[in-house]
Amino acid sequence: MRIESNYAKAEQFIEKAASDGAQLAVLPEYHLTNWVPEDPEFGELCGQWEIYLQKYQALAKKLHICIVPGTIVERHRSYVTEDKEILINVAYFIGNNVNPRSEALFLDAVLTARAFENTCAVIFVNAGGAVGSSKNNYAGLSRVVVPFRGPLGEETKNSAEEGMSIVDLDMRLVEEAEINYKVREDMRKESWHYSYRHVPKQTAEKL
pTM score, two decimals? Predict the structure, then answer.
């Protein structure tokens, strides 16, 4: 739970990304504290979130780069219909004792499927670290996934180690996927047969 040194390391990664021309930097969940809720200091450190959010805001302004500092973003079906073409998911997947490769199997299948079934780009950033450095078995496997080409990010997409990939995201692939599959176009139709929508409570009460 070395929050200051972890921030300094993240800052170095972001500075390198910005110097290489990146416009968006995405960090994994719990990258400042690790996931140790049983530790009595964990809650206290999490209480410093606003301090580090302000630091990331200042860093983004200084480097002219957008930063997603480890916040989880959920995407509902109603969100897909609003022509959103990029899904960002920060995560803390770890392995298990049944099959050390199970998370890799899951992520390879699900992330590619999500890119195709929503005709979108998926930016997936997961915690990574040296093998044996934690009681948790880091899964890593951070990647950007786009229709037709699949996973991108050579430095991290097949690794559980800590690292960074800089990816040139060609949104023309997303546009081409939508032209071919028309998924988001279908979702906007009243006849869309998967009719689930995330309905706000106030709206639901009026129905």
Answer: 0.81
Backbone angles phi, psi at 129, to 5 degrees: 180, 170
Going 153 to 109 to 79 to 171, the CA torsion angle's sign is positive
Q: How far apart are CA 142 and CA 165, in angstroms?
A: 8
Question: Distance between CA atoms of 22 and 12, rounded to whole angstroms?
Answer: 14
Is residue 109 within 8 A of residue 126, CB to CB? The reply is: no
Number of Cβ atoms within 10 Å of the Cβ of 101: 11
Q: Which amino acid is at 2?
A: R
- CA-based max dimension of the chain: 54
Rounded to the nearest 10 degrees, what angle do helices 3-19 and 49-63 cross at? 20
Angle at 113 between CA 110 and CA 119, to 5 degrees: 135
Give the residue among 139, 119, 121 at the shortest CA–CA distance from 129: 139
Q: Give every CB contact of residue 128 below 8 A, 6+ residues apart in sequence.
A: 28, 138, 139, 140, 141, 142, 156, 159, 160, 161, 162, 163
Residue 59 to residue 67: CA distance in whole angstroms:
9
* pLDDT tens-digit map of 134-190: 556 788 999 999 999 999 999 999 998 999 999 999 999 999 999 999 998 988 888
Half-sphere CA count of 27, side-chain side, radius 13 A: 26
